[in-house]
Amino acid sequence: MTLQQLIYAVKIADMKSMNRAATELFVSQPALSATVRGLEEEIRTEIFLRTNRGITITPEGEEFLSYARQMVEMQKLMEDRYLGTDHSKKKFSVSMQHYSFAVEAFIDLAKEFGMEEYEFAVHETKTAEVIDNVRNYRSELGILYLNPFNEKALKKSFAENEVEYTLLFQCGISVYMSNRHPLAKKERLDFQELEPYPCLSFEQGDKNSFYFAEEVLSMQDYPRIIKADDRATMLNLMTGLDGYTLCSGIICEKLNGNGYTAIPLNTQERMDIGYIRRKHMPLSKLGKKYLEILKKYG
Description:
- It is a single chain.
- By secondary structure, this protein is of the alpha/beta class.
- 41% of the residues lie in helices and 22% in strands.
- The protein has helices at residues 3-15, 18-25, 29-43, 59-82, 100-113, 127-135, 151-160, 191-194, 231-241, 253-256, 285-295; strands at 48-51, 54-57, 90-96, 118-124, 141-146, 163-171, 174-178, 199-202, 225-228, 244-247, 260-264, 271-278.
- The strands form 4 sheets. A 5-stranded mixed beta sheet has the order 4-3-5-12-6, with helices on both faces. Strands 10-7-11 form a 3-stranded antiparallel beta sheet.
């Protein structure tokens, strides 16, 4: 098995066409097909099903390609780091649950290092995608939380995806809402006071289980709940429907504006904010600096 064979297989899967992949790779279609057939014979696994309508990936092929993509991405990382010219940009990417403080820390990092030398990427996304992005080297770091309720399930997912978790800081639970909310002047809140208002929660897609929820106390019985996909929509729902969400209580007025408040929830529950990274992968200079900035929020 060679790296070139893996590159060819990944390109075919991405293009969903043998002909288009051959064009992208600057090889003939027969040569590409023969190379992949040789790979399938070597690993004794059929990766692609060929039909008159094109190709489809077999279930066994999907599993193989998940490993192949990691190898291809690792090769790209090594080329960027060790073979790049003086004019090539170094890359830094981070994925996170919907935390404005993590975005603010990313902004501070980009300002400090500048975008002339570095190519930055930030993914504010679902919990499972944070893990997947780190596993597949799309992001060096992933920012998410653990608590006693989700810890066992998420640590199992971390182990399956070859990532490791490190604690950054602990924080209490707060209720995040608009300053115009009827309860916005309270110093502390109980769950009973929140019952008349909709609880807002980030949609988690196929992994929409209590354990992958971004909001603590996801197993609580909420009479009214609304799912949203992004932070901007969440803020609009807070203003328009007197909705609320549960969060760390770390407010970033520079990003969200000063129209919102975080009120401590009357509970002993806490959340551990931490980061994941690929096992055995050293942190880059930017990765270390980003974590240093993040710790200031704790």
